[in-house]
Amino acid sequence: MNAKRLIRGKAFINGRWIEGTNTFDVVNPASDTVVEKVANLTVTEVHDAVDAAYKVWSSFKISDTSQRASMLERWYQLIMEHKRELAEIITLESGKALADSLGEVDYGASFVLWFAEEGKRAYGETMPAPKISNRILTIKQGVGVVAAITPWNFPLAMVTRKIAPAIAAGCTVVHRPASQTPLTALALAILSEKAGWPAGVLNVVTGTDSSGIGYELSTNPLIRKLSFTGSTSVGKLLMKQAADNVKKVSLELGGNAPFIVFEDADMDAAVEGAMFAKFRNAGQTCVAINRFLVQDSIFDKFSERLADAVKALHVGNGLDDGVQIGPMINKNGLVKVQEHVADAIDKGARILTGGKVIEGLFYEPTVLVNVPENSLIAKEETFGPVASLFRFTTEEEAIQMANDTEFGLAAYFYSNDVHRCWRVAEAIEAGMVGVNEGRISFAGAPFGGIKESGVGREGSRYGLDEYQEIKYINFGMADR
């Protein structure tokens, strides 16, 4: 397998590869086999990484914009040159289908190329002064050392989406990948080293002490920015801890995405969009559909069409040809899916297809119909290959059901009525809305949520702003 030359079990601090005193196993969830043993760093070693990043920042922050752009461009080129190897590593440690992993490499690399260019456009402004003897302007400067904490479900894209804008802004980074999937992040570090990045600009700290490392990264006063993608409960804790130093914080947290199908929708387009937005990575994505809200007049037709498409999905080891659905990431993820399905059935829902564990961590792609609003699956993020269908009658009822959640990350709906499209898009409480579209994320668009789904945006020019401070300068001049 080509991936072996990019698999490394050491942490990366200040340009050196660190073995650590202890190690932890990275396990392939599809086969329950150990992929690699990885350095299990202590909080003290993470603290050392922060110190290194801070020392390097004093010189890196005054580097030329063109130099930082070249760094990112070279990183992008290497990522694309090693696309297959990186995809194999993603599949080995996360279990997702190789086709999904190849798509993730393209998606993740697009952020690197985007911010290589966007860093050149970090414009300030000049403003009219109250007196003729003054000149007023603003400039943008990198915030400082950045702590980036990323999840297991997108072990490459969530990394590049944070590191690329930080580097473009002139920040240094201490990155802590999820302990389930650190190998992709370490492979990216290998490529950054190959790209000639200065030592200490990117540091990758690996370890299983999530709370200890999280506390260090959120409270260390040398870190001026914390970017976290993960659960809402952990995000809230990090936000509280970061408040002591008044750090700049970006949080991309949980979701409970609705997918509304109105009676005037294009049925074929709706099913196609649903299959991507629900079943990519076996439903283990933050923007995955959690609740299908289908108008009563087309409920039976849509549910049958969706079930037919779901039955055709091929489940298996992500490295095997033709596989579309891999395993759950771990036993806890599988148990949660089982609990949600069992609860829905107990409360009156019916299974159209699926609903069983196949073997190991594999779960059948499932369609549930007539799911009651008091079920667990209506309120909690399932994070698995389960499509839960709820009925509604009117547009007003659909909007009320869609917004009946503390989350507000992504939402989708399908309708061919242009007036309805504008009304519903503006009424839905979510940071991102797909109108007749199930693929909503790309590097040039702001990714993020409202309510308890987080603060800040990633991607787009707003994603660069998250790693910069605005400095106002008032020049007093001699009287004219």
UniProtKB/TrEMBL annotation:
Pfam family, one: Aldedh
PROSITE patterns associated with the record: ALDEHYDE_DEHYDR_CYS (PS00070), ALDEHYDE_DEHYDR_GLU (PS00687)
SUPFAM superfamilies the UniProt entry points to: ALDH-like
Domain of life: Bacteria
Keywords associated with the record: Oxidoreductase
Active site feature: E252
Aldehyde dehydrogenase domain segment(s): 17-473
Oxidoreductase listed as a keyword: yes
Family according to the record: Belongs to the aldehyde dehydrogenase family.
Record-linked PANTHER family: SUCCINATE-SEMIALDEHYDE DEHYDROGENASE, MITOCHONDRIAL (PTHR43353:SF5)
Name of the protein: NAD-dependent succinate-semialdehyde dehydrogenase
Protein source organism: Sphingobacterium arenae
